[in-house]
Amino acid sequence: MNEMIITNVAYYNDAAGNQDSIKATIEGVEMSIPLDPVNRHYAEIMRQVEAGELTIEDAD
Amino acid sequence: MALSKILPASQEQYVGSRNLIINGNMTCSQRGTQATGITTTGFRTVDRFRTSLSTLGTWTEDQATDAPDGFSNSFKLTCTTADASPAAGDIAYIRYMFEGNELQMLSYGTSSAKAMTLSFWVKSNKTGSATVQLLQNDNSAKNISPSYTISSANTWEYQTVSIPADTAGNIDNDNGPAVALIWYLNSGSNYSSGTTRTTWTAYSATDSNPANLGVGGATSDYFQITGVQLEVGNATPFEHEPFSVTLQKCQRYYCTTGTSAGYSVPTNIGPYGYMLAPMSFPVEMRSAPSMTNTSFANAGTGSYHGGFQSITTYRYVHEMRNSGGSNLYGQTINTADAEL
I need a labelling partner for B225 at 20 to 30 A (CA). Which of B152, B181, B201, B316 fits? Predict the structure, then answer.
């Protein structure tokens, strides 16, 4: 089962154009999520991506 | 020093902070005191304790003020929509997760591994056998699932459960999820058709909740706990500590910080304003947290630009837009979530 309902997932780039964080809506709440494997939200996003259940959009 | 002041070896466990659980008396509840209509997994009220659900009823979660003598709060789940016949994969439980670096004193994976005792107060309208489970994330979910018994309905009862040492399972010395402590309320056959495990053994889902209490089979079923203590050796009285100490421990995993930035943007410079809002966390967090920004006023139709977060600070840009005519200002509440 998916532990979190995750939608609207996109990378956010810093001023230099490097991927800096992920913006996502988790359980209805918009969050800024660090690219850190021990962050539980990031870990769950990547798990769902690897399972083919979620796609991370490029930064605007 | 007088010899009478020296503790015998058998009382070594009494020295220092002996309770491995943070917020075991359920006094710290930074997210709120009640959440209703719960059908999914999440942290909602009492810090560090997570409700975990998969299609098993609808619940209200409370930081309740009903508690046994010596305590002021408890963690309570009340069923508002029942599931009388859970499907095989349905499940409901309360989970507490330890970081690996919190458990190194257990010396797991060595011949010096320590046995522990879990103690807690529990109250429910349901009686009979129930299951707690400890599950090692670092060792392919190696686990034990001992049972305890609730003898009287609607009565606070004190429980103690022995946790044997594990001489074969290393716990990584890091800030990742290491060991989960679980109180099962109910589950389907995928988790309940096996047998109780009183020694550390390889994971088998069916042995997770063999003594199934069945909370949530009827509307108004409830389950509440407090005074949770996990310690090396035998059970001792609950280790009370000042609330400020508990709060600081909890803030390693979650904190809320208001940023009353008060940046006024003169309209004569245009319809845009940018609020740069750095914040420092009250304590160093477990890991770089997920950030949520809410509650800003008179900020036009702005939006947040994700920033940079570390274990100590967060920086972000709040872009405020206005069609003109009035100044803009922002007042933001940020939450930082580094829970396990």
Answer: B201
Torsion angles phi and psi, residue B30, rounded to 5: -65, -30
- Rounded to two decimals, the pTM is 0.90
C-alpha distance from B339 to closest chain A C-alpha (Å): 7
pLDDT band at A60 (very low <50, low <70, confident <90, very high): confident
pLDDT, one tens digit per residue, over B241-256 is: 999 999 999 999 999 8
How many CB atoms sit inside 10 A of residue B34's CB? Answer: 13
ipTM for the assembly: 0.93
| pLDDT of B242 | 97
Q: Which of A53, A32, A15 is nearest to B303 (CA)?
A: A32
Integer CA distances (angstroms), B27 to A30, B14, B98, B225, B242, in order: 28, 23, 19, 12, 10
List the single best residue of B290, B315, B318 to mutate versus A (max A Cβ within 10 A): B290
User: What's the token pair of residue B108?
Assistant: 């797991």
Is any Cβ of chain B less than 8 angstroms from the Cβ of A34? yes
Give the burial string for B14-27 (b: 16+ CB within 10 Å, else e): eeeeebbbbbbbbb
